[in-house]
Write a structure and sequence with these properties.
This protein has 317 residues and is of the alpha+beta class. The chain is 27% helix and 30% strand. The radius of gyration is 20 Å and the shape is globular. It binds adenosine-5'-diphosphate and magnesium ion.
Length: 317
């Protein structure tokens, strides 16, 4: 362990501030959260594992900390929720330097502050191999208003926020041995959870179904289709592809279709719903429509083709 468990917790505690809705945070057996009348709690948990989600030689500790919390915040965004508190379970190898943990916590807590989220607890243990972090994020929505994956109807239009493929195309460059400047590849090294967009869509009752693109457009759209018992067709030309690097270049379509960890929002809306082309400063693009039946189909230059969700495999290339 880089430092005794007790002093590590004391240090984390000194840096985490107690915010609205958190009656008691770090220091007791449980945190106490206040859920306002008329609201429901949202709870999500996500692993960040060394060698699966990051590599120490490619990702600065601040980046790992930020991306760890983004995974949870993005899930809250995908329900149209307001994040409230986070819980962090860490397993750290004995040999790990304290400096790494400090920088990891700095990256995580900076993002928590940006969204007014309190780190309200966690667990700390020694890991036999590699760094393991599990983030739990608790949020809320008004009762019955969380946007589910299951609400898409035939005829609904399909939309996506921002641009796709930037994160996985960056990972591809890292795999090819390229040294990258993190600032030229923000979607990978500095992802932004689309909380404001999700909240806006929910409060205006616009999205019939929603998911975040953590596993890739195809796989995540397939999740909406499975839960909603519908099919989808998307148009290759319409998919907003990320531009990465300097000079910036647009990523290949395969990254936009199948690459994960962009943490954009993918949602559907009834066709008579007016959806703005910008929400909270984020570009919104219509990419296709929901149909009856099952499966996914891509309309491209050579006509229609069946799309198979390949599933985002992280570091298994
Ligand atoms: P317990 O034995 O009840 O699990 P711990 O000694 O593990 O208590 O934790 C003491 C307090 O510190 C608890 O409030 C717990 O939520 C918090 N805590 C432990 N590890 C972390 C961590 N990695 N991040 C944030 N809070 C933590
Ligand atoms: Mg404990």
């Amino acid at each position: 362990m880089p430092r005794s468990e007790k002093s590590l917790i004391a240090q984390i505690r000194s840096r985490s501030s107690v915010g609205r809705g958190v009656v008691a945070g770090i220091g007791d057996d449980c945190a106490i959260l206040r859920i306002l009348p008329g609201r429901e709690a949202l709870v999500t948990t996500d692993f960040t594992l060394e060698g699966v989600h990051f590599r120490r030689e490619w990702h600065a500790p601040e980046v790992v900390g930020r991306r760890c919390l983004v995974r949870g915040l993005s899930d809250i965004a995908a329900m149209g929720g307001d994040p409230l508190a986070a819980f962090l379970s860490l397993a750290l190898p004995r040999k790990l330097r304290q400096r790494w943990v400090d920088r990891f916590m700095a990256g995580l807590l900076r993002l928590a502050d940006e969204w007014n989220v309190t780190l309200a607890g966690g667990d700390t243990a020694e890991s036999p191999a590699g760094i393991l972090a599990d983030i739990v994020v608790v949020g809320s929505t008004p009762k019955g208003k969380a946007v589910r994956r299951s609400g898409a109807k035939p005829g609904d239009r399909i939309y996506v926020t921002g641009e796709l493929g930037g994160s996985s195309a960056t990972l591809d460059l890292l795999f090819s041995g390229r040294k990258l400047r993190a600032t030229d590849y923000p979607r990978h090294f500095r992802p932004i959870p689309r909380i404001e967009v999700g909240r806006w869509l929910r409060s205006h009752d616009i999205a019939s179904a929603m998911i975040d693109t953590s596993d890739g457009l195809c796989t995540d759209l397939a999740h909406i289709c499975e839960e909603s018992i519908v099919s989808a067709e998307i148009s290759a030309d319409a998919i907003p592809r990320a531009s990465i690097g300097r000079p910036a270049r647009e990523v290949n379509l395969k990254f936009a279709l199948h690459g994960g960890e962009d943490y954009e929002l993918l949602f559907t809306a009834a066709k008579d719903r007016r959806v703005p082309n910008k929400i909270a400063g984020v570009r919104i693009t219509e990419i296709g429509q929901i149909r009856r039946g099952r499966g996914l189909c891509l309309i491209g230059k050579n006509g229609r083709a069946t799309l198979k969700p390949q599933g985002w495999q992280h570091f298994h290339h």
